[in-house]
Write a structure and sequence with these properties.
Layout: E1 4-9, E2 12-17, E3 21-25, E4 34-37, E5 40-43, E6 49-50, E7 59-69, E8 73-79, E9 84-90, E10 93-103
Antiparallel strand pairs: 1-2, 1-5, 3-10, 4-7, 5-6, 7-10, 8-9
Length: 104
C-alpha cells in the first residue's frame, strides 16, 4: 500500500492520499459507484516510483461521494461611458470522490 500518489483525472493532475475527499470535474457516475483510475504518474511512500509517463500496474480506487455545483462566480463586464454593463454567473459542476486505496 502506498500513502500518496499523483493521478490524472480528465487531463487534470491531483495529488491524492487514502481516505481523502477530492473534488474533480463532473464524472458520469452515480453516488456510491466505485471508480478505478489507472493513469498514475507517481506513487509515493517508503520507495517512491515515478512513471515515464505512467507507473506500470499502479491504480487508484475511489468511491463517488457527491455530485454538485460549486459556489457561484460572478463575471462582470463594463465599458466606461458607453452604458454597457453585463453580469453573468457561473457554477461549475463537480464530483466529490473519496480515495479508498492506492495500489502501486
Amino acid at each position: 500500500m502506498a500513502s500518496s500518489a499523483v493521478v490524472r483525472i480528465q487531463d487534470v493532475q491531483y495529488r491524492v492520499q487514502e481516505n481523502e475527499i477530492v473534488r474533480v470535474p463532473l464524472l458520469e457516475a452515480e453516488v456510491g459507484a466505485q471508480l478505478v483510475f489507472d493513469q498514475v504518474l507517481l506513487v509515493g511512500g517508503d520507495e517512491p516510483r515515478v512513471g515515464t509517463p505512467l507507473v506500470d500496474g499502479a491504480e487508484v480506487r475511489a468511491e463517488v461521494v457527491d455530485q454538485g455545483k460549486s459556489d457561484k462566480v460572478l463575471v462582470f463586464k463594463k465599458k466606461r461611458r458607453k452604458n454597457y454593463r453585463r453580469t453573468q454567473g457561473h457554477r461549475q459542476p463537480f464530483t466529490a470522490i473519496r480515495i479508498t486505496s492506492i495500489q502501486g
